[in-house]
Amino acid sequence: MGVGIEVANLNAWYGSNHTLQEINLNIPANHATALIGPSGCGKSTFVRCLNRMHETNPIARVSGTVRIGELDIYHDASPVEIRRRVGMVFQRPNPFPTMSIYDNVAAGLKLNGYSNRRSLDEIVERSLKDSALWDEVKDDLKKKSGASLSGGQQQRLCIARALAVDPEVLLMDEPASALDPVSTSKIEDLIFELKTQYTIVIVTHNMQQAARVAEKTGFFLNGRMVEFDSTHKIFTNPSDKRTEDYITGRFG
Amino acid sequence: MPDIRIAQPKPQPPEPASPEPAAPAGKARPKRASSENSEIRQFLSSRGNSAIADRGFKWLMVLCALSIFGIVILIVTELILRSQLSWHAFGLKFFFSSFVDPDTKQTTYWDPVNGHFSALPFVYGTLVSSFLALLLAVPLAVGVAIFLTEMCPRGMRGPLAFLTELLAAIPSVIYGLWAMYVLVPILREHVNPLLSQALGWTGLFANDNPTGLGFVAAGVILAVMILPIISSLTREVMSAVPNAQREAALALGATRWEMIRMGVLRNARIGIVGGIILGLGRALGETMAVTMVIGNTPEIHRSLLANGTSMSAVIANEYAEAITDLHLSALTEIGLALFILTIIVNALARVLVWAVTRGAPAQVMH
Amino acid sequence: MMTDRLATGLAILATMLVIAPLLIIFVYLVFKGARSLNLAFFTQLPKPPGEVGGGMANAIVGSAVLLGLASLIGVPIGIGGGVFLAEFGRGTRLANAIRFTADVLNGVPSIVMGVAVYALIIKPKIPWLPFTGHFSAFSGGVALGIMMIPTVCRTTEEMLLMVPNAVREAALGLGAPNWRSVLSITVRTASPGIITGCMLAFARVAGETAPLLFTALGNDFWSANLDRPIAALPLEIYKYALSPYDDWHRLAWAASLVLIVLIALAVSLVRYVTSRGVLKGAS
To answer: Which pLDDT does position C278 carry in this prediction?
Structure first.
């Protein structure tokens, strides 16, 4: 039910800063793929190119192709259409502060004009169950605001919100980095479940996390993708010396 | 170098897509029927591209923003067009000429019946009343600001600040009403006689106006009205001075007043000047309170106790019933001059305040 | 030490001198105004000079009409301008120019606004264009509305800038069209503050007299007709204050009290909303 992503000759700039250089890789469908690398290596920029959020910055530029399934996202569709199919969970949980939990989850659909009330109820319930938040909030759906939850709950709310629009790909930009260990492990469990239905790309600083949840891992350094292979190989027998230096903690 | 590997991760063989995830938490999760999936996806893909709506929305917002320019253009065009008559009749001399009656040898400035128009008394009145207001307001406003920012106990700060801002909310006409029936009698009975007794030798406080109206009355009420602006801006720039400056002064052994003078006021100097100029701008344009107490006499006297007039006052009084087209045009020309004057003063003030609170970081001024 | 104490003393003196007029004015308003407030004030028309009694019902209605029209003009356009400055034009030179112009416009004397509107609407005599050629409530409402635009625009911008970018990103990331994201998410999050700004502008124009002197002109009788001159509280205060009749003076005080109370209500509502709503909404 997810789709694969093909990236070819991707370059990205912020103004004159050449943030990504000649990225080529194939992200498999229905798997979780982790992207690791030191701060500032471009991995966040990379995922933001996958749902065309990179270009929301006025000085941002992109060249190359990104294919999600059959679709060339930069030439065959508009950013708005792409973002409905490629969901994103951000580093800091960002539920809509003035909306209830219910409205937060339903936001993606409502903002696009969906109004079938009964359907929305089902979709909200299902999304909250998929993000393992349902039991904790099912009595307060419309009474509590999204911002009144704890950090871990907020992030799961954001995941539910992203899932509600039934994307084919789910991008997660360091989703647990602002959370405590208990919430982090809950979210990692979630990713385990979700990857059977979606293609997940997760950016993480935490190598153990990558090892725990992802089948494939890519190592980014200074705007280039140095190595992309099965997680097992990256962490036990990397081909590139720079990868080995990073995972053994010599830098980063 | 020992071969360091990170602690072996939990063995995770690369999985082919397996239908049952090896999830540690064994919660059963209902699988979605694929038809439901595509319902949402179908709905969303039917929504299409919103490019047209987005562009339309953006241009609507641009139009609204451009209305600000539109308002300025409107004012400028109308003022210039409608003052053409007067401009052609009098030229630049409009602002400093006078007319002498050949028979009575009286100097007049504003004679709608005979078509003699000079803006001199109004310009004079506006400037005199405004500067008098500044003279009275600035020490008080800065004093209040110093008190509230540096000296006031924390609990009183909020309510007192609120009270001073409340002064700004009172409409001009109510100030005028109060000035007419409370301030003016006080001036008439008590203050003005004292002033002309004590300071009459300066030539600025003649004894010949028993009404209590005049420049002093206008100056006082204007001072009350511009106090909140000067005070709140001074407070804002004083608060923007970083605490490090205060601490540095104190560490050098300064008393509190010295610390305020050298650590705070010196740094905030430019901003305070900006606030004062903003207050001046407000005083220049103030209409209702001024026209109610200044006496509305288009004459020029040296005495501050004399009746006078101002640019905004004459427009307020005569515009609705202007006799001739020339009269109306002369009034409009005064309006144009007032507009230009306040624009310049306000722009100058804004530049100064902006430089201190937003643009340049607070620096030690020399 | 001596100068220090002197400085402190002077500062306290200054503060007292500043608060004093406020308190004195307030006391006068309450005492002189409240005494003259009765039911007749709110329900009757002014009586001819010399006759005791009467009220300012027409002025209350007139002010309501003028302020309603002014808000209809000032609020949407002002908010639109603020949305542009914060969401579309951030950092551009155009936006900076507009912001500066709006700030400067706020300092233009209101009487000049009246002159401009008079010249635009009342002076020209175009038979087929409605509202032109004569004094009218419409022209007064336009003058007040134009005065609201720069204020509402700037406060809207400031409130929108306080909405964290994460909220915008969340909306865009869901595939919401930009216009939807701006309106339903960003503006909605900032709405308590935006409403505050509108009320501040409203309170300011509620007390304006000068621009109405030769646009709405004033009216001694009942009228809510946009095409005719209309009464307004500030105008009545002005007229009655200048009159030689004691009875009219007392009506002026009463009207002043009513006007102040209305403005105070608006300002207090603003403070209440600010202390509660904005912090919650833009967290």
So the answer is: 44
Domain limits for position B231: 75-359
Q: Does B55 touch chain A (CB under 8 A)?
A: no
Residues in chain B within 8 Å Cβ distance of C81? 61, 64-65, 67-68
Q: Between A80, A87, A88, which is nearest C177 by CB?
A: A80
CATH number for B233:
1.10.3720.10
Q: What is the mean pLDDT of each run of 10 residues along chain A (252 residues)?
A: 86 91 91 90 91 90 91 90 92 92 93 87 91 88 88 92 92 90 88 87 89 91 91 89 86 66
Each residue of C140-164: pLDDT tens digit?
999 999 999 999 999 999 999 999 9
Q: Yes or no: say if C197 and C147 are a contact pair by the CB < 8 Å rule.
A: no
Number of domains in chain B: 1
pTM: 0.86
Q: Which of C85, C111, C120 to mutate to test the interface with B (most CBs of B within 10 A)?
A: C111
Across the range C9-26, mean pLDDT stands at 86
Going from the C-alpha of B296 to that of each of B94, B110, B125, B288, B307, the distances in angstroms are 19, 12, 10, 12, 7
CB atoms within 10 A of CB C86: 23
Q: Which distant-in-sequence residues (6+ apart) come within 8 Å of A15 by Cβ?
A: A59
Percent of chain C exceeding pLDDT 90 equals 46
| Nearest chain C CA: its distance from B165 CA (Å) | 10
State how many domains chain C has.
Answer: 1
A229/B contact by beta carbon, under 8 A:
no
CATH 1.10.287.110 holds for A5-97+167-247: no
Q: Which of the given ranges, B238-247, B252-261, C78-87, has the highest pLDDT on average?
A: C78-87
Q: Which of C7, C89, C179 sits opposite B65 (nearest CB)?
A: C89
In terms of C-beta density within 10 A (0-12 exposed, 13-18 middle, 19 or more buried), how is residue B31 classed?
exposed
Residues of the domain holding C189: 37-281
Q: Rounded CA gap, A87 and B41, in Å?
A: 13
In a domain, B24, yes or no: no
Closest-CA distance of chain A to residue C170, Å: 7
- Per DSSP, the three-state class of B324 is coil
